[in-house]
Specification:
disordered N terminus; four-stranded antiparallel β-sheet; Actin, Chain A, domain 4; alpha+beta; globular
Length: 164
């Protein structure tokens, strides 16, 4: 069922693209029409990039591959979408946080601003056909967490899933 995978990731991708678009809008100086085009280009780039790397049955598989990251280097997917509306990487670095990590996984989209910031969940849905298992890491909402998260370890890229 390779071709059906695209529809399954629509919500996750549109959530992630909308988030990056909101960051650009908040920074100011980018027109609404450009933002709309940026969001569509980013969604398209993500769909293409994730096509063979989306595993709803093993949501953490491929997480590092799907991770969108700005860390002194511009993420190529964001860079590509920005190029379509004429924004240079230099301009993007002015508009977006200099340290941003966005995880786009089946059933969950989360982000972190800064290397030791809190991980905040943008979108979460229960996995179909799975008993609600205790998650490997329980995360409080950002508001409660942001004060106490100074010493929390970074989210691991190859988190092991335990099958029973």
């Amino acid at each position: 069922a390779g071709s059906g995978a695209g529809a399954d990731m629509r919500t996750e991708i549109s959530t992630a693209a909308a988030f990056v678009t909101r960051l650009l809008r908040a920074a100011g100086g980018v027109g609404e029409e450009q933002l709309r085009c940026f969001r569509e280009c980013l969604q398209e780039a993500m769909r293409e990039h994730y096509k063979h790397h989306w595993f709803p049955l093993v949501p953490s598989k491929g997480s590092g591959y799907r991770c969108i990251r700005i860390n002194h280097k511009m993420d190529p997917l964001i860079g590509k979408a920005a190029g379509m509306i004429g924004l240079s990487h230099e301009r993007l670095f002015q508009l977006l946080p200099s340290e941003l990590t966005l995880w786009v996984d089946p059933f969950e989209v989360s982000y972190r601003i800064g290397e030791d910031g809190s991980i905040c969940v943008l979108y979460e849905s229960p996995q179909p056909g799975r008993k609600v298992a205790k998650q490997l890491e329980s995360r409080t909402s950002c508001k409660e967490e942001w004060r106490t998260s100074r010493s929390s370890p970074s989210k691991s890229y190859n988190m092991m899933t335990v099958s029973s």
